Amino acid sequence: MTARKITGYHVFAVFALAFSIIIGVNVTMAVNAVRTFPGIESKNSYIDSQTFNERRAAQEALNWDLDVALAAREIEVRFDDGHGPIQPQNLKAVLGRATEREDDIALNLIYVGGSHVAPIPELGAGRWVLRLEAEAEDGTAFRKDVKLWVTE
Length: 152
Prior knowledge:
Layout: H1 8-36, H2 45-50, H3 52-61, E1 65-70, E2 74-80, E3 85-86, E4 89-97, E5 105-107, E6 110-112, E7 115-119, E8 126-135, E9 141-150
Antiparallel strand pairs: 1-2, 2-3, 2-7, 4-5, 4-8, 6-7, 8-9
């Protein structure tokens, strides 16, 4: 049996194959990361950070308590200010996945008997986030993300 001689072409082919695999995996990971990125959350995070503490203090001063109940085909959101249920102004709600905006569902919450109720489609198992935005009567903004876990 004769030993095969390793030439420069063999070494080049091994290096080219190894680096092609590495580059291919990197490109695949980068494409998947960019495709699932939900986008810009804030136009200028520095400016937003300058007023964060004031906005948070104003929201906490409202003393609103939030209760969310998830049923098979319905979601119920109840706001309470310590004196009873309240009906905030300009209520917006979006139900979606925590990591992507593709499955987002804009909810049409209707005030019924002290709670806001909206029909929802059947949700897949996993983590969901209810993103709420509302205003108090004095114009104070209220924002809250409620994490929900759905099991099959």
